[in-house]
Amino acid sequence: MGLFWGLIIGALAGWIAGNLMKGQGFGLLGNIAVGLVGGFLGGVVFRLLGLAATGLIGSLIMSVLGAVLLIFIVGKVARR
Hints:
- This is GlsB/YeaQ/YmgE family stress response membrane protein.
- The chain has about 80 residues and is an all-alpha fold.
- It has three helices and no strands.
- The protein has helices at about 1-20, 30-50, 55-80.
């Protein structure tokens, strides 16, 4: 069941981040990938800042913030 919720949160986080950063999503698989990597990145950043995200909403917020950061970094690197 944890894998199922992880994929759902990843897809939702990737879609939200895609809409926030460039106005569109990345497709289902792209949203899941961006959301999952963003969740990992968000977890690292949250730990470095001494923050914790618990529950479904906390995981979603952390994943969205991480995915936004991921899209920002990839956008900056890709422009070079």
